[in-house]
Amino acid sequence: MEPTAKKSEITATKKYLISKGIDGFFEDLYDLYSFIIRFFKESFSTPFEWREIINQCYAVGYKTLLLVSVTGFITGTVFTKQSRPSLSAFGAASWLPSLVSIAIIKTMAPLITALIAAGKVGSNIGAELGSMKVTEQIDAMEVSATNPFKFLVVSRILAITFMMPVLVLYTALVGMMGAYLNVHSNELTSFTSFFISAFKSIEFKDIFSSLFKALCYGFTIGVAGCYQGYYAQNGTQGVGRAANLAVVFSMFLIFVEELLIVQVLNNFK
Amino acid sequence: MNKENVQIDKREMVISLKELKKSFGQVHVLDGVNLEMKAGENIAILGRSGSGKSVLIKIISGLLKPDGGLVKVLGQEVDKLNEEDLQALRLKIGFSFQSSALYDSMSVRENLKFPLVRNRRELNDKEVNDAIDSVLNDVGLPQTINQMPSELSGGQKKRIGIARTLILKPEIMLYDEPTSGLDPITCIEVNNLILKVQQDYKTSSIIITHDLTCAKTTGNKVAVLSEGKFLKIGSFNEVFSSDEAYIKAFYDYNFTENNITNEK
Questions:
Q1: For residue A262, what are the contacts with CB-CB under 8 A and spacing of at least 6?
Q2: Which of A228, A253, B67, B93 is 20 to 30 A from B57 via CA?
Q3: What residues make up the domain containing B219?
Q4: How many CA atoms lie within 13 Å of B125's alpha carbon, on the beta-carbon side?
Q5: Region label for B227, one of left (φ > 0), alpha (ψ between -120 and 50) or beta (otherwise)
Q6: For the whole prediction, is pTM greater than 0.90?
Q7: How much is the pLDDT for B263?
Q8: Mutation for A interface: B55, B60, B87, most A CBs within 10 A
């Protein structure tokens, strides 16, 4: 009888752990929902933290500018270089500027900028707020009659949400410059004819969808970083975990959003 | 500094706790705590690690919500206040954290300026700078004004943490283990500062500590917390004349040689 009893005990433990895991998942989901609702409520209530929002905008731009410049330039150059043989095989090398502009403006610039920002800014927000949480700096702010959610969370989420479209436009521009240099060095195409050809295939809708994606990715990176940092626990280990989860969640969600947004926006043709 | 010099207003109750309860999961940290603190009074709360001392002052400052009981601070029920009223009440409560909790991305000046400019928007730059200089002089650290928290010693951090709360001129001070991790001489300096704050700023204070010298020096009353309740509240001599083993253990560790095991 004993082995049977043990087996049933193990099954019960497994069931308990599974149900606890499911409960935990829904609890986390509810906490995240409450966090986002609180963000919207606090965003529209006075006083506004303009100075801190501007400081954070500057920090987001300053932290990511060099990285997005380099990666944007490399992406534009490499993508052009890799696409040339395929297009040339069909005698369509003249389509290179159009192909590159569509790829960079519609997908690559928002995605690359978002991934760089998730790694650089998202992890930084997670670690910074996590560290403030575990060293009681957030509590200190609260007891000195300052709303830490508004000062730390709202300002950071707004800053990265509004800076992302700017960074995406900049990355697209740098990427296009990389593509132009490659095309110019191979086909001797002039600057004007390259950009005329490139923008022939781009519509306002494409730029709008790119900027819309940038807003969504920025919001996602901000929420993931702030949520993980603001609720960090367990000392320095918790700080590392917050930074790590901020990056993992935002990167995962960015790809999911990319898929969803492309599906939705393609229906507006 | 002498705690006997202060005037305690026996009629005015600044903190009143009745049957206060707080649990975390299955652990009942506070299980019916009662306490009354009068204006101008310092109460030192002693207890083992994890006995709920810090939880108690976090409930008083509104950082944690109690599960049951009454928490009245300056005549207001803390857990029933809306956000706006709670913020207004918090301006009258200073909280000195165990870890000092200085904003590590800001200099000492910015740490002191931060709560002041956010809560006293009517002050001009000169008034803000004067307030910072004055409070730094009070804690004896005017030379640290441009230093970063990482450049300060443990004792300096504690004193700057206290200065940051004093700049808002609170009526109540809550000290969470003000002397923990400090050398004896710095402990004496911090104890003297607590008394100076009581006398100069006319505050009433709760001092959470394990350090009996701190409790004896700074507390007009001492309260011993054990298993979620106060075992005894009274003057230092009243409390430590008790035969209660738990209370004796505290005294023996601090003031006698009984705590040293002779293994020779």
A1: A107
A2: A228
A3: 3-98+176-197+205-255
A4: 0
A5: left
A6: no
A7: 45
A8: B87
CB A168, CB A212: distance < 8 Å: no
Give pLDDT, residue B1.
62
Q: How confident is the model at residue B8 (pLDDT cuts 50, 70, 90)?
A: low
pLDDT for A76 equals: 93
- Residue entry with tokens 């709920």: B52
Using an 8 Å CB-CB cutoff, list chain A residues near B119.
144-146
Does residue B149 lie within any of the structural domains? no
User: Which among A137, A142, A143 has CB closest to B103?
Assistant: A137
Do residue B103 and residue A140 have CB atoms under 8 angstroms apart? yes
Instruction: Kindly state whether residue B142 falls inside one of the protein's structural domains.
Output: no
Q: Evaluate whether residue B151 is within a structural domain.
A: no
**Longest Cα pair distance anywhere in chain B, in angstroms?**
68
CATH of residue B227's domain is 3.40.50.300
Inform me whether the pLDDT recorded for B253 exceeds 80: no
Interface subset of A 5-44, CB within 8 angstroms of B: none
pLDDT band per the 50, 70, 90 thresholds, residue B262: very low
Give me B210's structure tokens: 């394990």
Specify the pLDDT at position A93. 80
Is B264 within 8 Å of chain A by CB? no
Number of structural domains in chain B: 1
Residues of chain A with pLDDT under 70: 1-6, 269
pLDDT at position A3: 57
* pLDDT of the residue at A26: 85
How far is the C-alpha of A112 from the C-alpha of A116, rounded, in Å?
6
